[in-house]
Amino acid sequence: MIEWSPSKIKAFQETLLAWYDKEKRDLPWRRDHAPYHVWISEIMLQQTQVQTVIPYYERFMAQFPTVEALANAKESDLMKAWEGLGYYSRARNLQRAAQQLVTDHHGVWPTTAEGLRELAGIGPYTAGAIASIAFGQPVPAVDGNAFRVFSRLLEIDDDIAKPKTRSVFEAAIQRMMPADRPGDFNQAIMDLGSSYMTAKNPDSAHSPVKAFNQAYLDGIEDQFPVKTKKPRPVPVDLLALVIRRGDQLLLLKRPNSGLLAGFWTFPMVDVAELQAASERDLVLESDLSRALQKWAMDEFKLALTAIGFTGGQQVTHTFTHRKWRISLVVADLAVDADLSYFPGQWLTPKAVAKTAFPKVQTKLFDQARALKLME
DNA sequence: CATACGTGGTA
DNA sequence: TTACCAAGTAT
Question: CA A211 → C1' B4, Å?
């Protein structure tokens, strides 16, 4: 890692901000610096691309225009607004933070990064972003862009996948913050990171700050940032149950923590767990069918009959750490089946449009329709 | 500290 | 298809 003199820092600030004044992106959340607008956009932008966020942001602001509206929103409406964006705890934390603002802070925003950190879902990056953009505080906002940009500018070779590395970057960036325009500085770094100083195929030869890019000048730009790789998603085989009653389908509410927390999906069984719980190898469909019936009875006192394996191709869905491979299974409910132990509900076709579903469930709906199992 | 947590885009 | 990336946070 290299050090810059005060005069070089000054020159960098001027070059960067002059470029930003000319070339900054025209984004919906940049129409003003209202903390509510900055906050919602920053949460949506976590691990999510600008192009994906724009339509969600516009709809969200139309539906929940103020902190109070968000605090008082129905959770089902909120989740429907967030449907498809992923990382759904972001939406739930958003509402919790709105309620914190209304009740704990009487509607008055904390103006410092430390104060903002008290709000649900606001970590070190988002606190820095809101504090600098909305409140003019000279604090860094260290996101993936900042890691990438400054690792190249200063040849910082600490592993950005390690949590402790954040403090190294925060300290380095803190010394560069211009006292008069910290918000613009942080946003300029992000624009730089998404234009010239990209992760793949950077165009540093035309970058406005190429003269400051030490890694580029040394011809070692491809060595930065240093980042250890993440493990590949683990394959998981599942069975999804399509249980019908007329035109309705039986859906199961997932636990309130963990993957797709709180969402309604087809009941799903992990094939490996089913196998482990079985007394014999599940080689025949009749064996699988028997194991499935026992599973439903053990788990929910749910009696299933006429279990059929559809044979259609598997539905696959990949998360950050899991790869689901799902086979659809049609089952009938025994005529005297007792649903009182089943934490589920019958879903009408009309309710499908009103309810928020995770992407994997919409894929399962699509497959069920293709197999003429619904609608 | 390492891992869980969604989805869509690109090479 | 795999691999990796995209304005991270909670536990």
Answer: 40
pLDDT of residue A63: 98
Average pLDDT value over all residues in chain A = 95
Q: At A161, give phi and psi (nearest 5°).
A: -80, -15
Could you check: is the Cβ of residue A193 within 7 Å of any atom of nucleic acid strand C?
A: yes
Domain locations along chain A: 6-223, 234-370
- Rounded to 5, what percent of chain A is helix, strand, coil? 45, 15, 40
CATH 1.10.340.30 fits A6-223, yes or no: yes
Tokens of A316: 């696959």
Residue A114 designated active-site: no
Residues at the strand B interface (CB under 7 A)?
A 47-49, 51-52, 84-89, 162-164, 200-201, 257-261, 317-322, 358-360
For the stretch A78-99, pLDDT in tens is 999 999 999 999 999 999 999 9
Q: What is the pLDDT of residues A162-188, one digit of tens each?
A: 999 999 999 999 999 999 999 999 999
Q: For strand A268-270 and strand A234-245, is the pairing parallel, antiparallel, or unpaired?
A: antiparallel
Q: How far is the CA of A158 from the C1' of C5 (A)?
A: 19
